[in-house]
Specification:
Layout (H helix, E strand, L loop, with lengths): L1 H14 L2 E6 L7 H4 L3 H4 L4 H4 L3 E4 L5 E4 L1 E3 L4 E3 L1 H10 L6 E7 L4 E7 L31 H9 L3 H33 L9 E5 L8 E2 L2 H7 L5 E6 L6 E9 L2 E4 L3 H7 L7 E8 L2 E7 L2
Parallel strand pairs: 2-7, 10-14
Antiparallel strand pairs: 1-6, 2-3, 4-5, 6-7, 8-13, 9-12, 10-11, 11-12, 13-14
């Protein structure tokens, strides 16, 4: 009986095994960053370590991450780890604790740089959205006007109103088509003053983190961490990149290095970012 009690206690202790990570501004996807502590791993069997880790956040979202091994240590598989980092907009010196709950299930607690715990998923800033009140299209008569014309027995006037309404709708649709064509043309690289855009010159350090000057940060970028989707101009490739704000500085962090390698970017390139949605960009690159 005592032995069973000891075994149960041992199992409970293993369930509560935990480790922490500090996501400093280094290569957030390196094997060292993804490594599992040796003292933590040695309490698990090879069979357990062959399973996927299931990481669950305080608000219920979860991620499955494979466990890999090199000659020195076990570590979390890159794509699963990067998905977890990207979804939570991490990369600004957050403090994370991973607590084992049994069967390779973990709860993660995320503490921000200011010491506050993240209790809900990061919210994207709607920094380009503006409130617009619905307006009646000019030249299109209201229903009340049509009813009034009918009640006055004006059959000819009614036909005239319908004709003018149809004409106004055709004009409106024509303008809408022109607008759609204009947006598509701008997405293909044509310049337009109506498109929000900014340019950055690539320095060596910008191949790892893209730091924004205050002029760009204050005018174009949100005031809190946001996940941006950045497209190649051919729209066949896109990257999720975490935008982080730390004090008076801001940068593209997690995901940016991968973009720079895959696009690829090089020192001396000029990058033009054009907004197509509130947190969606097309990246045009000019070589020197």
């Amino acid at each position: 009986m005592a032995r069973n009690s000891d075994n149960d206690m041992c199992k409970e202790e293993r369930k509560r095994e935990s480790f922490f990570k500090v996501l400093q501004r280094v290569d957030i996807s390196s094997e060292n960053m993804r490594a599992l502590p040796y003292d933590f791993v040695r309490s698990f069997s090879n069979n357990e370590l062959s399973r996927k880790m299931k990481i669950k956040a305080r608000w219920g979202s979860s991620w499955e991450v494979e466990i890999c091994k090199n000659p020195r240590f076990y570590f979390m598989e890159k794509s699963g780890w990067e998905k977890f980092v990207s979804d939570n907009a991490l990369g600004a010196s957050e403090f994370l604790t991973f607590t084992h709950k049994g069967n390779m299930r973990f709860t993660v607690n995320i503490f921000m740089q200011d010491g506050k715990e993240m209790l809900q998923p990061p919210q994207s800033m709607s920094f380009m959205a503006s409130s617009r009140s619905p307006k009646r299209e000019q030249g299109i008569p209201s229903l009340a006007t049509t009813i009034a014309a009918e009640s006055n027995g004006g059959g000819n006037y009614k036909r005239k109103l319908n004709f003018e309404k149809k004409k106004a709708e055709e004009s409106h649709n024509s303008k809408r088509t022109d607008k759609v064509f204009s947006v598509q043309r701008e997405s293909a690289g044509a310049s337009s003053s109506s498109v929000t855009e900014f340019s950055m010159f690539i320095k060596k350090s910008y191949l790892i983190y893209m730091w924004f000057p205050k002029s760009v940060q204050s005018i174009h970028m949100p005031k809190q961490r946001t996940i941006f989707k950045i497209h190649h101009p051919n729209m066949k490739k896109s990257w999720n990149v975490v935008y982080v704000v730390s004090g008076t500085k801001s940068s593209f962090s997690a995901g940016w290095k991968g973009l720079a390698q895959e696009y690829p970017l090089a020192v001396g390139d000029t990058c033009k970012f054009s907004f197509i949605k509130q947190h969606e960009l097309i990246l045009f690159v000019s070589k020197p």
